[in-house]
Amino acid sequence: MTDMADDCKAQIDANYQSVSNVTLCTVLSGENGAHVATVEHLIAAFRGLNIDNAVIEVDSHEIPIMDGSARPFVEALLEAGIKELPAQRRFIKVLRPVRVSEGGGFCEFTPHDGFHFDVEIDFDSPVIGRQRYQMELTPERFCAEVAAARTFGFIKDVEHLWASGRALGASFKNTIALDDDRVLNPEGLRFKDEFVRHKLLDAIGDVALAGAPIIGAFRSYRGGHRLNYLAVKALLEDSSAWTIIEAPRIREIRYADFARSLEAAHMGAPRN
Ligand SMILES: [Zn+2]
Fold first, then answer.
1. How far apart are the CA of 162 and the centre of ligand 1, in A?
2. Most CB atoms within 10 A, among 124, 210, 249, 254?
3. DSSP symbol at 200
4. Is this prediction's pTM over 0.85?
5. Per-residue pLDDT tens for 208-264?
């Protein structure tokens, strides 16, 4: 974090071990009490574009919400350009299923030769209802299908948050506002199923906090930031459930020698 008194400057790893709160958004904390909230859409933009080595400078305790999606971050990153480094990329490969459940929802990782996401939501609201979205994560599909999906909230909850001094910046410019049975934003939805796509966006950001792209299948049913975080934590804290493998490029990972990697020693929870 920059633009703060020197003794407040801090470097915070974008890693699940830095997660300090997952109630409304994902909050990362570091030394000296430094913290930064609402990291998920920005981290999702990096993960969606396959960028895994970057320093993000922030001069506030919250990442700007922008339009409530990851699209402005993706546009800015693409405009800045992406540089390929000579170092080998590291990946976390899921070796066996890990599942967490809570409050009628669950999140799980299972072995899979790719980067599969499967997110399902089930809201007791006719405007959302039950929606499911599955994809093999690639930059092309992330940009086309996920990045623009905006965050959403029910007006009754927003009023409750406002009363407690939170979500003060929420508006039609950065949130899909819902009444019980309709979308209140005059421009309507960007996708018919924008809600589940946004939950997928959140999951991509939260799962990226594993510290490296996960080779495996992620599935969530009625999940959210908390379950996403708990699933990443449960996976990485069980050293028999994953291993680290390396490959020069993400597109070459499918051709990596998995069998040899399985025999390689665990290298501990990755940090980057
Ligand atoms: Zn979100």
1. 18
2. 210
3. H
4. yes
5. 999 999 999 999 999 999 999 999 999 999 999 999 999 876 665 544 443 343 334
